[in-house]
Amino acid sequence: MLVVGLTGGIATGKSTVSSLLRAHNVPIIDADVLARKVVEPGTPALAAIARAFGPEHVLRADGTLDRAALGALVFADEGKRRVLNAIVHPAVRREMFWGVLRCWWRGERVCVLDVPLLIEGGLWKWVAKVVVVYCSAEIQLQRLMKRDNSSREDASARLNAQLPIAEKVQYADVVIDNSGSLRDLERQVEQLVQRLNDDAGWSWRLSWLFPPWGVASAVWTLSWRALRRSKKNSSKKR
């Protein structure tokens, strides 16, 4: 099974691309959905958050997570953000792993991991292909201002807090350029689906029927990606 990482920047249109892929019956494992799931009442992650920050500060009366209160606590405190990420990120990654296994068990040819921080979190190293949804910084800024009804200064501050989309593109195997119309985006997604199915080839059936082949294939793919990235980094330093 071909495991693909999908990412982008705020207001580049990653969620739209994810929805279009679903319309083509491509299974999506959404990290944002999983991030909410792993902190539901009764989960180990929510209990760990309550211990770390105090239940009186981060839990509502009904025992659910008060996201606004937690966000206010960690927004301006790098140390607290690290504590929160150390709790949530491993839980989300475990859920993603089980999601990939379920897709493989169903005999899927391709599955897509929709991860906003695919590059920043290092998960790009663990997928066969990276797809980045791109638009220019100016278009990104204008869309964000329109979407959130925010000022240029506020929107710029949010963008500057993220890894620039141009840097993410450097990690991409496929770039979806969402600078144009919806129809143009749909056409690119159609081409992407065809390409992913072609890249999956026939060996996905062998991997499903004979799991050791799948494991060996995954190790080879990830090793090749690591080697290729290492060569790119070496070239940049020269």
From TrEMBL:
UniProt cross-references to Pfam families, sorted A to Z: CoaE
UniProtKB keywords: ATP-binding, Nucleotide-binding
GO cellular component assignments: cytoplasm
One GO biological process term: coenzyme A biosynthetic process
Top-level taxon of origin: Eukaryota
Keyword Oxidoreductase included in the entry's annotation: no
GO MF assignments: ATP binding; dephospho-CoA kinase activity
PANTHER family for the chain: BIFUNCTIONAL COENZYME A SYNTHASE-RELATED, DEPHOSPHO-COA KINASE-RELATED
Stated family: Belongs to the CoaE family.
Family annotation (HAMAP family): Dephospho_CoA_kinase (MF_00376)
Protein name, entry field: CoaE-domain-containing protein
Species in which this protein is naturally found: Trametes coccinea (strain BRFM310)
